[in-house]
Amino acid sequence: MTHPPGDPWNPPPLPDDRPADRPADHVAGGAPVTWTAPAPDPEVLRARLTRSTSLLGRGLNVLAALTMVGGAVSALSLTFGGRAALALLPAAAQDRAGTATALLSVAGLLTLALTGVYASVIRWARELLTRLGEWVHAPDAQPPDAQTPAPDAPRMERLRRTLAGWLVFSQWGNALGVLLSPLLIPFTTRLTERLLDASDPALTDGLVTGPGLIAYQTVSGVVSGIPVAVITWLILGTVLRFMNVAVQRARGMQGPPLARTAQLAGQWFLLSMILLGFLALNLLIVLALVLFLTIALNSGAMSDSLSFLTPQVRAALVWLPGVLLGLCLYGLGVYLLLFLLLMWSRTYASSLAALLDARPVPAPQAESDRPATLNGP
C-alpha cells in the first residue's frame, strides 16, 4: 500500500548522509557511545576519609566506654539486684530460690567477662580503622602511585587476624544464641511458677503455662530469630571481606577492587540504620509508658491494684520507674551513637575504597598461612 506524497501520517524518511562505516550509535573511530561518571577528586576523598576516620575513632571510644558502663551495671544488677529481689519473697519461697540465685551470679560473671571482651574488640577495630585511614590519606608518606606496603603493615595484619577470628566467632555465636536462647523458655517458666507457687499459690492461678503454650513460645522465638541471625551473618561477612582486602592492599599484595565490597557494606549499613530507627521508635514508646507508670505510682491510682503485694515489694516498686527511665535513656543514647557510627562507616568505606582502587595494583607476594586466632594482637 502506497501513500500520497503529502500524507502527514507517513512522511518521507529523512536523508541519511552518514558514511557507511559510521553507524548511528557510533562516534568517530567506530567507538560506541558510552557515558562514564567523572572520577571523584582525590583531595575531596582524602578530606572525607580524614573526617570519617577521626569521627569513627572518637565514636568507637565512646561506644567502648558505654559498653563498659552498661556491662558493669548489668552484672551488678544481675548479681546483687537479683538477690535483693529474691530476698523480698516470703520465707516459704526462700528454700527454692537457691537455683535462681546461682543462675543470677553466673549470668553476672558472664556478662562482665563478655563486656570486657567486647570492649577489647572495639578498641582493636578502632586501631585498625585508624591505621588504614591514616595510611591511605597521607600523600606525603604514601604517594598515590606507590607500590610499597604500609609502614605498620605487620601490625595491621595482626589486628586483621584477631578481628577476623572474633567476627567469625560472632557470626556463629549470634546464630547459635538466637536459635538456642528460646530453648530456655521452658526452664525459666517452670522456675518462675515454682517460686510464685511457694510464695503465694493464688498468684499462679491465673498463669497459663501449659505445654502447648510453652512449645508455641519456644518455636515462635526460634522462627522470629532466624531473620536476625541471617542479616547479622551477612553484615559481619561483608565487613570481614572488606577488612581482608583492605589489609591485603596495605601489605603491598595484589587484591580485588574494593569498590564493590564497599558498596555492598554501605547498603547493609543503610539497612542497619533503618532498623535502628525502628528500634529507637519502639524505645520511645516504652519511655512514654514508663512516664505514665511514674505518674500512676506517684498519684496513688494503682494502690488498690498493688494491695496484694507485701509492703517490702511495694516499697521496692518506687524505684522501678527511675530504673526503667535510666535504661530507656541509655538505650536511646546507644542507638543514636550506633546510627552515627554506621553513617560515618559508609563514608569511610567508600572513600577508602576509591583511593585504594585508584592506585596501581602492586605485585603479588606470598601470603602467610597462619590461621585466624581469637587471641589478642
Descriptive report:
It is elongated, with a radius of gyration of 31 Å. The chain has helices spanning 42-87, 91-94, 98-136, 153-180, 185-199, 211-250, 259-299, 311-316, 320-357. The longest helix is centred in the first third of the chain and has 46 residues, at 42-87. It is mostly helical and 377 residues long.
Brief summary:
The chain is mostly helical and 377 residues long. It is 68% helix and 0% strand.
Low-confidence spans: 24-28
Number of strands: 0
Q: What is the H/E order? A: HHHHHHHHH
Biggest sheet record:
none
Tell me roughly what share of residues is in helical segments.
55-70%
Oligomer: single chain
Query: What is the rounded distance between the termini?
Result: 84 Å
Number of helices: 9
| Structural category | mainly alpha
Overall outline? elongated
Overall number of domains: 1
| Mean pLDDT value | 75
Give the strand content: under 5%
Gyration radius, to the nearest Å? 31 Å
Observed structural traits:
377 residues; mainly alpha; 9 helices; transmembrane helix; transmembrane; membrane
Strand and helix map with partners:
Blueprint: H1 42-87, H2 91-94, H3 98-136, H4 153-180, H5 185-199, H6 211-250, H7 259-299, H8 311-316, H9 320-357
Helix pairs in contact: 1-3, 1-9, 3-4, 4-6, 6-7, 7-9
Biased composition (Basic and acidic residues): 15-25
Biased composition (Pro residues): 1-14
Keywords: Membrane, Transmembrane, Transmembrane helix
